[in-house]
Automatic annotation (TrEMBL):
<keyword id="KW-0949">S-adenosyl-L-methionine</keyword>
<dbReference type="InterPro" id="IPR013785">
    <property type="entry name" value="Aldolase_TIM"/>
</dbReference>
<feature type="region of interest" description="Disordered">
    <location>
        <begin position="177"/>
        <end position="204"/>
    </location>
</feature>
<dbReference type="InterPro" id="IPR058240">
    <property type="entry name" value="rSAM_sf"/>
</dbReference>
<keyword id="KW-0479">Metal-binding</keyword>
<dbReference type="InterPro" id="IPR007197">
    <property type="entry name" value="rSAM"/>
</dbReference>
<dbReference type="Pfam" id="PF08608">
    <property type="entry name" value="Wyosine_form"/>
</dbReference>
<dbReference type="InterPro" id="IPR029039">
    <property type="entry name" value="Flavoprotein-like_sf"/>
</dbReference>
<comment type="pathway">
    <text>tRNA modification; wybutosine-tRNA(Phe) biosynthesis.</text>
</comment>
<dbReference type="Pfam" id="PF04055">
    <property type="entry name" value="Radical_SAM"/>
</dbReference>
<dbReference type="InterPro" id="IPR034556">
    <property type="entry name" value="tRNA_wybutosine-synthase"/>
</dbReference>
<keyword id="KW-0411">Iron-sulfur</keyword>
<keyword id="KW-0819">tRNA processing</keyword>
<keyword id="KW-0004">4Fe-4S</keyword>
<feature type="domain" description="Flavodoxin-like">
    <location>
        <begin position="223"/>
        <end position="378"/>
    </location>
</feature>
<dbReference type="InterPro" id="IPR013917">
    <property type="entry name" value="tRNA_wybutosine-synth"/>
</dbReference>
<protein>
    <recommendedName>
        <fullName>S-adenosyl-L-methionine-dependent tRNA 4-demethylwyosine synthase</fullName>
        <ecNumber>4.1.3.44</ecNumber>
    </recommendedName>
</protein>
């Protein structure tokens, strides 16, 4: 208004000046100009608003016309003021005469409930309502008048503020078009938000907010370059990323290179993050067969679905990016599919993709493409244009009830490619197959392995048997070492598999029939035995008997109890007169509880405390400790009819500290035997995820000291155990339940014929029913070397004098079985003991 009037007045003045040249009019116009100032207009308008009616507007307009025609300002003002007074009086009389609104009715009713100075239930002055009495001074009237006026004034003010008089029910909004609930997403989202949300509890605010990452943040970040490799390409490219990053002067922190296979606990990086300023780059190949990436992806997916874990743990990262490498020619449908899957899961876990995923074909793109990606990535780091992070909801909801991501393999199937088949654990064309066969394993079917044991060869040549010969009466030359599951649910630091076998919590592969496995395992075993016929020193009689396997050590690598038909397989062994020595890792209580009768049942107890167990076994299960305790309870209850053994593999610096807590576990599981063995040195730690060095391999003297302390603690608790037998050469000592000590003589050996007789009888029997006397040479203190075998010293190796025994080192480890000196460890290639 203040803008409009001056403008109109200028026009008006010009116009009027042209039409009326008389002096009088100029004077009156001058007056008019002065008086019709902003102040006058404001006053007139406020009066008009107060009066609020057509009459008021009409009066105002007429007054203005009057002024425009040269009327006197004082008269104009007088008209407006008198109209206002008249109008107000009319309104007051109208209100008194009529009850126009419910608000006013209420006020009237209140007046009626006044006690009138008598007090009573509705008395205005009674606090407790009705506590009035004599002398009560009713304040109704005074209140009513003064306060009502105030209230009226308030309401009136409200009405004026709203541009209308107060009404009981406000219908003014009723006919306004209703605002739709916006389903539109902020512009930063590339796709509309799904309407159906399965995960209502998720932090929507987080998802919906656009975030930017500045180059300052990127350059200050601690970069971790992860890679996973089977054949070395990804490692090479990861090193290239590292080299390129290191040339960036602006980068504040030195990047760190990490092999995903060597990460003890993926949660350290993919549930928690090393620091708030961490940035991840992942260089990943793809394999359509089993490879370590399967476990990595499985972990990411499980973390996402684990309700105990923060839904978006990776939002703490500054960002991430993935460089995928693959082969688009041979695997067009699955090109870089594991890199893409990783990208999917990291995004779902809250990671911000700060640079597009690279998909490089090693055949068609190769190194130039990789370099290009790396260069662009580094440029992005430096660019001070902030990176806008857009959350892609397509990763959030795939529209299915099941929270599972649609497997890319299934997508392949939808397009007509028959690639939905369950994978083979170790397919013939897989790198795992190559690695295992290179290490001397025969892969049977797609998930079983057999390998002729070093002790089998040694015994064939009359050079000594393994420790199980001393402790339990196994004949090594007639023993087959086999596993029906090359996959395992732990990644023990002392395992000699060199990270080559698949890892998984549960069985998720094709299953071979037990008879097929046994038949082919025996074939493989016998063919390897046959190859021994030309080896010097092979004892003809032992060689002949070796073609009739009598024992099967179900261990080797992997977790045999994971095999779904393990009971049927054991049944077949027993049918053939082959005894069964099954070693399990105490991570599958259900399978353990359902296990059929075996000749001897081992449970690996690799540590006595939760923390140590996690460090040493690197179990895949989060509830690994509870699982182990459950397994011990099963040994003491459901499986108490079995001949049970705790196997302790001692690793210096990892699990040799705690005798008390080991005793607790024995108290819980009540095994028949406790086999304490020093860890075997499984070669260098380079690239196999095995962090052990020779310093972690205990001397035999250290093992003996530990065992004595342990047995003393068990006796102190009245548990009835004692040290019984040994095989010094294997760094192995046996603690046995004193139930196996009869007439002061140990009966730790097995009477295999008796075992099969009992089994055939169908009767219930106990471990004490098929025992045999422990021979003198095997008793603790006698070394455990069987008479009849010949001591053998490697060429150039002298027998170690007694005085030097305790200081024998790694070089002394690689000696033959005839040597009884205390040793520290064994090499991976030849000292695998089942
Ligand atoms: C058995 C096998 C399976 C493979 N499967 C795929 C695949 O499904 N998709 C893909 O893009 N590349 C596949 N590749 C190609 C590898 O991803 C590629 O060779 C990569 O460079 C290997 O990386 P690495 O040397 O670090 O192990 C496969 C290669 C082999 C040997
Ligand atoms: S080390 Fe194992 S596989 Fe080898 S002979 Fe002894 S029990 Fe059998």
């Amino acid at each position: 208004m203040t803008f409009f009037f001056p403008f109109s007045l200028q026009k008006f003045r010009a116009h009027r000046t042209r039409r009326h040249k008389s002096q009088d009019f100029v004077i009156s116009l001058h007056f008019f100009n002065r008086l019709i100032s902003e102040e006058f207009i404001r006053l007139a308008l406020s009066l008009m608003i107060r009066l609020n009616g057509a009459t008021a507007a009409g009066t105002f307009l007429l007054t203005m016309v009057y002024l425009w025609l040269g009327g006197r300002v004082t008269i104009a003002l007088a008209i407006i003021v008198s109209y206002a007074i008249l109008h107000k009086e009319y309104n007051v009389s109208n209100e008194q005469g009529q009850e126009k609104t419910p608000a006013k009715t209420e006020k009237k009713e209140k007046k009626h409930t006044c006690c009138g100075g008598k007090g009573g239930a509705n008395c205005c002055s009674s606090k407790a309502g009705g506590a009035g009495g004599s002398g009560h001074a009713c304040r109704c009237s005074s209140k009513n008048k003064a306060q009502e006026k105030k209230e009226e004034a308030k309401e009136e003010k409200k009405g004026l503020e709203a541009g209308s008089f107060p009404v009981a029910v406000d219908f003014t909004q009723a006919f306004k078009p209703q605002k739709k609930k916006s389903t539109k997403q902020p512009k930063v989202f590339s796709k509309p938000m799904p309407t159906k949300k399965k995960t209502a509890s998720r932090d929507d605010d987080f998802k919906k907010s656009a975030m930017t990452v500045s180059n300052g943040t990127l350059l200050n970040s601690q970069i971790y370059v992860f890679y996973c490799t089977l054949q070395g390409t990804a490692e090479r490219y990861a090193n290239r990323v590292m080299a390129q990053l290191c040339t960036m002067r602006d980068l504040k922190q030195r990047p760190t290179l990490i092999n995903l296979d060597e990460v003890t606990d993926l949660d350290d990086y993919f549930v928690s993050v090393p620091s708030e300023n961490s940035l991840y780059i992942l260089v990943l190949p793809s394999y359509d067969t089993d490879c370590p990436l399967d476990f990595f992806l499985q972990t990411l997916e499980e973390n996402f679905n684990d309700f105990r874990i923060d839904k978006y743990p990776l939002r703490k990262l500054v960002g991430y990016s993935i460089l995928g490498i693959g082969d688009t020619e041979t695997w067009p449908e699955k090109f870089c599919y594991q890199a893409k899957k990783t990208d999917h899961w990291i995004a779902r876990l809250g990671g911000r993709r700060i640079f597009p995923i690279g998909e490089v074909c090693v055949k068609t793109g190769g190194e130039p493409k990789v370099n290009e990606w790396i260069d662009l990535f580094c440029e992005t780091m430096k660019d001070d244009e902030p990176i806008l992070y857009e959350y892609d909801e397509s990763v959030e909801d795939d529209g299915t009830e099941n929270d599972e991501m649609v497997d890319l393999e299934d997508m392949g199937n939808a397009e007509g490619n028959n690639s939905t088949v369950i994978k083979q654990m170790v397919a013939k064309d897989s790198p795992t197959y190559k690695t295992l066969t290179k290490q001397g394993y025969s892969v049977v079917g797609s998930h079983s392995g057999v390998k002729i044991c070093r002790w089998t060869k040694s015994d064939l040549r009359g050079r000594g048997s393994c420790y199980k010969h001393s402790l339990f009466n196994i004949v090594s030359s007639r023993c087959m070492e086999l596993t029906p599951s090359l996959a395992c649910s732990s990644k023990c630091v002392f395992c000699w598999r060199h990270g080559s076998n698949p890892v998984s919590k549960n069985w998720r592969w094709e299953v071979d029939e037990p008879d097929y496995i046994l038949e082919n395992a025996l074939k493989s075993h016998y063919s390897k035995i046959k190859q021994m016929r030309g080896v010097p020193g092979v004892v003809a009689e032992r060689f002949a008997k070796a073609f009739q396997v009598r024992h099967c050590a179900l261990s080797l690598v992997g977790e045999p109890i994971m095999y779904p038909y393990i009971n049927r397989f054991i049944g077949l062994l027993h049918e053939k007169g082959i005894s069964s020595f099954l070693v399990c890792n105490a991570q599958h209580p259900e399978a353990l509880a359902n296990l059929c009768r075996v000749t001897q049942l081992y449970v690996s107890i690799d540590a006595s405390t939760k923390g140590e167990l996690k460090k040493i076994d690197r179990p895949l299960y989060k509830d690994f400790w509870e699982r182990m305790l459950q397994c011990l309870d099963i040994l003491n209850t459901t499986q108490s009819h079995q001949r049970t053994v705790f196997r302790l593999t001692l690793v210096k610096g990892f699990n040799m500290g705690e005798v008390m807590s080991y005793a607790d576990l024995v108290q819980r599981g009540k095994p028949c035997f406790i086999e304490v063995k020093g860890a075997t040195f499984a070669g260098s730690s380079d690239g196999n995820g095995n962090p052990l060095t020779m310093q972690n391999i205990p001397f035999y003297e250290e093992i003996k000291t530990f065992v004595k302390k342990f047995a003393a603690e068990l006796q102190r608790r009245g548990l009835g155990y004692d040290v019984s037998a040994e095989h010094a050469h294997s760094n192995c000592v046996l603690i046995a339940s004193t139930k196996f000590k009869m007439n002061d003589e140990w009966y730790t050996h097995i009477d295999f014929d008796k075992f099969f007789d009992l089994l055939a009888s169908g009767q219930d029997f106990t471990p004490l029913d098929y025992v045999a006397k422990t021979p003198e040479w095997a008793l603790f203190g006698n070394g455990g070397f069987a008479p009849g075998d010949t001591r053998f010293y490697r060429k150039g190796k002298k027998k170690i004098p007694e005085t030097e025994k305790l200081s024998s080192t790694y070089s002394a480890a690689f000696v033959n079985s005839t040597q009884q000196e205390p040793v520290r460890g064994e090499t991976a290639a030849s000292f695998e003991i089942a």
